[in-house]
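Q&A log
Question type: sequence-to-structure
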Amino acid sequence: MSLSHWTEEVRLIRTSMNEKEIRRAGVLSRVKAEDLTQVEAAEMLGLCYRQTRRLYRRFFDLGADGLVHGNAGRRSNHSKTAKFRERVLELVKKHYGGEVGERFGPTLAAEHLAEDHGMEVDAETLRRWMLEADLWTRERKRKVYRQRRLRRAHFGELVQMDGSFENWLEARGPRGCLLNMVDDATSTSLGTFAEEETTWGVADTLQAWVEKYGVPQALYVDWKTVYHHQPTARQKQEGIVPISQFGRMCAKLGIELIGANSPQAKGRVERGHGTHQDRLSKKMRLKRIATYEAANRFLADS
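Response status: OK
Response body:
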């Protein structure tokens, strides 16, 4: 009997065997038919000679059944009961479900199941359960590849700063701006809410950072007028570099303002915006936060 025919027969009869066991059975059947030596079989299987010899002894005595793992078909000692799974999915549907964009992802839902309900479940297990129950859908978007800039070596050497204007309170309040700062070396972050990305809004956020972490050497920001003023024709002609009010504040503190030429250049703070838009809004929904004053207190306590 050829190897391909034997393997196909094993697939039909022994559905509990995995691909590795089927391949081992095919190779060891050739050893039994004296087409291969045990040394050659060990090379083909990527095993040592002693392990191959043990496997062949089991195969010779028990056939293909001797190669099936002893736990095959048994319930895992770590598996959850059907009642536990049903309860978890009820909680997810009640507290963390909703339309696409509103529902909690498996990782965030698993965190709150443990924190709010005392139910520990692995995020990947919950992902599988939610997919099976149509409570989650795979939403993978292919992104344009960009080579990431190397991190700075030390904390405070460079801090990225940017604002994100969104419906952070959803229908419970007006739109607002999350001003976020992220250390380039360690990804340590700090954020505050303001009505707009204004001079005083970013100044308050910088003050909060300085009080907690100290004065950074440099801020990596975009070219909005709150950070940089575009020179007028006269200033260009006379070689004058205009400085914003926030820029003058930074200069007094000895902080260098570096302008980023694209959102991707501030990748860490931009990715932070995406995470906050997904997780922070949902966490504030659970807390029924309806004002940005309360939102700032929530951020300070988090």
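Response note: DSSP finds twelve helices and five strands in the chain.
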